[in-house]
C-alpha cells in the first residue's frame, strides 16, 4: 500500500491464507469424490507434481488453477470469491467466515445479484403510463 495516495488502501492480509485453505478444500472435495490426485491432474491437463502443489497451497500456483480445480470438482469457490468482493469494496473480510461453510452465503449473494438485475430489467421495461 502506497502512502502517496495513488493506490487504494486495501486490506489484503486474507489472501496470504487463501491458497492454503483452498488447497485443503480441493483435497477434501477430491477425496469425497473418491478420486486420486493423478486422476484430477490428468483431467485438468497438468502434472501430478503441479496438482500436488495446488493441494499443498503452494504460493507459486496461480489462483486461477485453484478456481478451476474447485469448479471441476463441483466445490464452492466462495472462500476465494467473497474475500475478493470485500477487498474490492475496501472492507476487511471477517476471518471467522473463511473457515466456515460459505456455500449458503455464496448462494444468497448470487440470488441478491439476480434479484437486483431482474428488478432493474422490470423497471427498464415497464411502460410509463
Automatic annotation (TrEMBL):
> Which taxonomic lineage is given here?
Bacteria, Pseudomonadati, Pseudomonadota, Alphaproteobacteria, Sphingomonadales
Q: Which InterPro entries match?
A: Cro/C1-type_HTH, Lambda_DNA-bd_dom_sf
Identify the domain of life: Bacteria
Q: State the organism named in the record.
A: Sphingobium baderi LL03
Its name, as the record gives it, is HTH cro/C1-type domain-containing protein
Q: Which residues form the HTH cro/C1-type domain?
A: 26-57
Q: Name one GO molecular function term.
A: DNA binding
